[in-house]
Every structure is written in structure tokens, then in C-alpha cells.
Prior knowledge:
Blueprint: E1 3-7, H1 19-27, E2 30-33, H2 36-45, E3 52-54, H3 65-72, E4 76-80, H4 93-101, E5 106-109, H5 114-122, E6 129-134, H6 139-148, E7 155-160, H7 165-176, E8 181-186, E9 194-199, H8 200-208, E10 218-222, H9 234-246
Parallel strand pairs: 1-4, 1-5, 2-3, 2-4, 6-7
Antiparallel strand pairs: 7-10, 8-9, 8-10
Helix pairs in contact: 6-7, 7-8
Bound molecules: S-adenosylmethionine.
Amino acid sequence: DTGLYIVATPIGNLGDMGQRAIEVLAGADLIAAEDTRHSARLLQHFGVTTPAIPYHEHSGDRTPERIMQTLAEGGAVALISDAGTPLISDPGYRLVRDVQSAGYPVVAIPGPCAAIAALSACGLPTDRFRFEGFLPARAGPREQRLQCLVDESATLVFYEAPHRVLEVLGAMAAVFGEEREAVLVRELTKTFETLRRAPLAELEAFVASDANQQKGEIVLVIAGRDERDVTLDAATAKLLQRLAEEMP
Ligand code: SAM
């Protein structure tokens, strides 16, 4: 059926490819891929011969004519990214908006997503979580972002580059406190998959002591602020202290 299909693909292990994802990709008239060379391997592995074009989302880019043309002719277009679910720290948002504005349906074909996989196995509360994607690369803006999150009580989920993970854990320990629980989730679904949960300072020391922990693909999951930890403004704190002094 005509429309744009948002197709999730594996985040490492090809065995996680969904049956419906294969069918939709094979049946589509056009595949829009973040990186066509990268995706060629995946498509070949599953015997998909649908033509693929690159799709980026640099500012100023317009939705490729070929996508709109395919939809106008009643065809199906599938969007994939290099790994996992498109639009989750990946291109596709503008495309979805454009296609919907033009009156065509957009259909999700769900599957792997590193953030959700990490959450499901990390051992921190999952009833409320906040996906933050990638933090700013530079220290100043990064700290500002972390400061904005300091009172958030939902579990926090970040994607992080391996060469920055140590620095980021240090920055998080400084802002959220050394005792805040955190989980380093690496290489999900792959050979060297590891998961380690510890207070931030301890996790930082662990990563510092082992260069292997600074490699591969990484999700950081950080506990939200404990709602019982109330910080009081200075006047209230002083009043409470004086009251305490009066107590028998
Ligand atoms: N769209 C993808 C998804 O659904 O998870 C995420 C794309 S984002 C550009 C890539 C980042 O996702 C990596 O830097 C890493 O933080 C995380 N990631 C992707 N695959 C992963 C894996 N197998 N294990 C851990 N983290 C992964």
C-alpha cells in the first residue's frame, strides 16, 4: 500500500531483523537509507533488491523529489537508518512531517532500538524515563544540559560516543552526585555485550581502569533524582535547623 514505512533494523545482531521489516523492504518501490553503502550489506543479506537512495537531513535539504514522486504514483517508500529505529537520534523527522503534510500515510514497522533495549535490561526504574540522545560534545554546553536534568526524577537515557564516555561520567558525577546510580550498557546484541550498574563515581573509576570499556557503542542509563531527596531553599533550611535545635 502506498505510504512511508519507518522500518527498524538490527542494532548489531542480524538475527533481530523482523519478518515484517523484510517483507516491507522487499515489497517497497524505493528505500531511503541514511547510508546506502552501509545498508547495501543488510539488504543483500536478506535478499532485498529494492532500489535505495540516500536520505540525510542537513538543514536546507528538501525531501528528495524521487520520494514524493514514488508516493504520488501510489508507491511505497521505506525509510531505514544505519541501525535501529529511524528518527531515534537518526534522520527522518522532517520526512515524516513532509509526507504527512502531503496527505500520505506514515506507518511504523517497529523493531530494535538501543535505548529501549538498554532500559529493559539495566535494572533501573522504567515506569518513567526520559530519552536525551547525545549530549553536546563540548564541556560547557554539556554541563548546562546536565544542570537542566538535575531535578528530573524519571530515569535518564543517553547515547554516548566511546571516546567521550569517561569524561561524561566525570561530568555526570559532578552534577548529579557521585552516589547517583548509573548503568553502562555496551555493544548490545553483539559479541562483547556488557552491562554494569554502579554509583557514578564507581562506574567512572571502572571505565578509567579498563580501556576496553571505552570502546564500541554505548548507552548510559542514569537513575532519576530520588524524590525523597528534597533540597530546601536557604531560608527554609535555616528555619528547620533552628526548629531542630529547639526539639527536646
Ligand atoms: N536509531 C538508533 C536506535 O534506534 O537505537 C540509534 C542511532 S544513534 C546515531 C547511534 C547510537 O546508538 C550509538 O552511538 C550508541 O550510543 C547507540 N547504539 C546503537 N547501537 C548500539 C548497540 N548495539 N549497543 C549499544 N548502543 C548502541
